[in-house]
Amino acid sequence: GAGVSQSPSNKVTEKGKDVELRCDPISGHTALYWYRQSLGQGLEFLIYFQGNSAPDKSGLPSDRFSAERTGGSVSTLTIQRTQQEDSAVYLCASSRGQGGAGELFFGEGSRLTVL
Amino acid sequence: KNEVEQSPQNLTAQEGEFITINCSYSVGISALHWLQQHPGGGIVSLFMLSSGKKKHGRLIATINIQEKHSSLHITASHPRDSAVYICAVAYSGGGADGLTFGKGTHLIIQP
């Protein structure tokens, strides 16, 4: 695709349910980042993939959060037993470079609302 | 941990004014990014730089590696420049967490 694609664009779920968010990066981009942005807040780093591996998962807020990337392309972010504080826009970005040394391309985000 | 400080946090200016947004960081970096986010919109990369100066249209970004400081300038500002401008840095060590973000500068350009 021409840009970073995220789905769903909007997700409303009930507290306690699991959700899965998907990111399809630009073809050939080895670096993939997940961030979240709560209402009125700045960007919060979640996880960074270089290829299929995630050097550091310490940005994930709790063990309810997990992410994987297969084939060096599509990534999924899974939130188990969602809580109201998980409500945010989840953003994905990709780049050619590694460690932040490449132009970033952001998706439009997945807006998650936990009731 | 590398901290990224942006100033000002909020800025309101009149159309046509020259705008400067500042970003300071605390340790060596391999790259610095300037990003733009319009209200309710997505995030767009404006610049990525590791030294010197870059220009694109009315936007200019500079970085001083010795002083660990970068500035984003907007010349002949226009209401459509109203957005949040975010500075992000990548550690020299190729940090495992990719990028560290500043909290953003909320810019409003009044007609």
Account of the protein in words:
The complex is a heterodimer of chains A (115) and B (111). Helix content of chain A is 0%, strand content 46%. Chain A has no helices and ten strands. In chain A, strands 2, 4, 5, 8, 9 and 10 form a six-stranded mixed β-sheet that branches. Chain A has a four-stranded antiparallel β-sheet with strand order 1-3-7-6, with no helix packed on it. The termini of chain A are far apart. The model of chain A has no long low-confidence stretch (mean pLDDT 90). Chain B has 111 residues and is mostly beta strands. In chain B, strands 2, 4, 5, 9, 10 and 11 form a six-stranded mixed β-sheet that branches. In chain B, strands 1-3-8-7-6 form a five-stranded antiparallel β-sheet, with no helix packed on it. In chain B, a hairpin with a 2-residue loop joins strand 6 and strand 7 (59-64). Chain B is globular and about 45 Å long. The model of chain B has no long low-confidence stretch (mean pLDDT 91). The interface between A and B is medium-sized, with 25 and 27 residues.
